[in-house]
Amino acid sequence: MAKADLLGLYLDWQAKHGSTIRQKQAFILAYQGGAWSKLLEELGPRVSWKSLERWKLERKDSGGVLALADKRGLAHRGKSMLTERHQTIILGQILDGDRQISTCARIIQERCKAENLAVPSDDTIRRWVANYSKTCFSDWTLWRNGEKAWNDRCAISILRDWSLVGVGDVVIADWPYAQL
Questions:
Q1: What is the pLDDT of residue 111?
Q2: How many domains is the chain partitioned into structurally?
Q3: Origin, by domain of life (predicted)?
């Protein structure tokens, strides 16, 4: 368990050098510098002394190192906590083109509280909205940006009859990403 090993090294460091902020930062610099390269490979460089202090408290509160184990696991990777009801609530709010996503997120969270559902975080809502805007681009464009934007961005190759265009004809594309 890499977190427990790094925490043990951190506590040994504090026993030898003290527990001042300067010494905590020195430990992190040594860690990020590669003093413990195997741990650096496993945990990555984004560990701070504040993370180590939090881990120390978690271990102390639980009485063992199992509290430091990553509880997400591969079994849960890629799964969302959003149910179909959450998704319906989110869609009902974000497809209103006049509201910003942050405003919609606050309304969604309040509505989930009112319906006794698990309240999704702003990041969860934004990730779901970003995924929806990519997978349902035409619906997203129509509802958020309007019919003209939908006509220019989504219907460009569906509604245009290219057999009517002859050699020498001028085609006007008024949308910057128009594909001919």
A1: 94
A2: 2
A3: Bacteria
Question: The whole model's pTM is what?
Answer: 0.49
Q: How far is 51 from 53, CA to CA, in rounded Å?
A: 5
Task: Give the pLDDT score at 72.
Answer: 59
Q: Report, in this order, helix, strand and coil percent for the chain, each rounded to 5.
A: 65, 0, 35
109 lies in a domain?
A: yes
Helix axes 2-17, 49-62, angle to 10 degrees: 110
Give me the domain span that covers residue 57. 1-68
Predicted confidence (pLDDT) per residue in 81-99, tens digit: 888 999 999 999 998 878 8
Select the highest-mean-pLDDT range: 44-48, 58-62, 114-118, 166-170: 114-118
